[in-house]
Every structure is written in C-alpha cells, then in structure tokens.
Amino acid sequence: MPSSLRSRILSLVLALALAMGTLAGIALWQAYATAQDQVANQLLATARAMARVVASSWFAT
User: Fold this and answer.
1) How many angstroms separate the CA atoms of 26 and 6, rounded?
2) How many angstroms separate the CA atoms of 52 and 55, rounded?
C-alpha cells in the first residue's frame, strides 16, 4: 500500500473520530440542558404549590 494512500486513510479515520467526538459532545450538552430544564420546571412547580398553600391559608382565616 503506497504511503500516500495510508496517509489519506489515516486522515479519513482521524476526521471520522473527530466527528464522532463532536457528536458525542453535542449529545452530552443537550442531555445536560434537558436535565437543567427539568430541574427548573420542578422548582417552579414546587414554588407554585407553596404559593397556593400560603394563599389558601391567608384566605381561610
């Protein structure tokens, strides 16, 4: 196998590895962002529930 063909194959393999690493990084970033959104939504739901409890106790008296 000529060395130029080897170098082309090596370049292709390295480019493919870089692309796979980039896609993995994007997937991790998206998963992190989704988890953060879920936590924020849970905190908001908790705050709303607490506000309802406080409001109902104010109007009950």
Assistant:
1) 30
2) 5
Q: Whats the size of the chain, residue-wise?
A: 61
Q: What phi, psi does 6 have (nearest 5°)?
A: -60, -45
| Rounded CA Rg of the chain | 26
Amino acid in the structure at residue 9: I
**Model confidence over 22-57: pLDDT tens digits?**
999 999 999 999 999 999 999 999 999 999 999 888
Q: Distance (Å, rounded) from C-alpha 11 to C-alpha 6?
A: 8
3-class secondary structure, 2: coil
Overall pTM > 0.70: no
